[in-house]
Specification:
CATH architecture: 3-Layer(aba) Sandwich
Structural class: alpha+beta
Helix content: 25-40%
Number of strands: 4
Strand order of the largest sheet: 1-2-4-3
Number of domains: 1
Distance between the termini: 33 Å
CATH topology: NADH Oxidase
Radius of gyration: 17 Å
């Protein structure tokens, strides 16, 4: 395994994928990393759908190209959809909080772990924010009432160049007390 901070530096939003197919085992490993993410009260409020068949991937890519955005998706080789499931919280917690209180953060943790595992394997990912959720549900036989935690495009980067991270300075975001 890489040094974790080096892995964080290598992980980036890939917007230029090669034509190289992604191996099924690598996609399964990425999902396994997501499945192992921490969750509030160990509720694990997620499930995952992987689109890897080329014809299906092409249709999902079109769903992410709303408003002429994300043209790079046509080169993605797979998509991982993180779905929100009902969280089962301990009765004492459930009396105080809605069952889905932690779910959004839990789905974020699973998504990050998927993307970091992909980077560890030399894959590129991009979390897509604009897409036709209803059409994706129809294509992948997902109930239309199901909430998405993330739509992640996956593929081998067309070029392995790592861009410098542009982030706020540590002084802007950190305070010890």
């Amino acid at each position: 395994m890489s040094n974790f901070l080096e892995l964080c530096l290598r992980r980036q939003s890939c917007r230029s994928f090669s034509d190289q197919p992604v191996e099924h085992d690598k996609l399964a490993q990425c999902v396994e990393a997501g499945r192992l993410a921490p969750s509030g009260c160990n509720a694990q409020p997620w499930s995952f759908v992987v689109a890897e068949t080329p014809a299906v991937v092409a249709e999902v890519a079109k769903c992410g190209q709303q408003m002429n955005m994300n043209p790079f998706l046509s080169k993605a080789q797979a998509f991982i959809i993180v779905l929100e499931e009902h969280a089962v919280l301990a009765p004492a917690i459930r009396k105080l909080l809605d069952s889905q209180y932690f779910a959004k953060g839990d789905l974020g943790a699973a998504t990050v772990q998927i993307c970091l595992e992909a980077a560890e394997q030399g894959l590129g990912t991009c979390i897509i924010g604009v897409y036709d959720r209803e059409k994706i549900c129809e294509l992948l036989d997902i109930p239309v009432t199901k909430q998405f935690g993330a739509l992640i495009a996956v593929g081998y980067p067309a070029d392995g160049k790592i861009r410098p991270k542009i982030r706020k300075s540590t002084d802007e975001v950190l305070r010890f007390v």
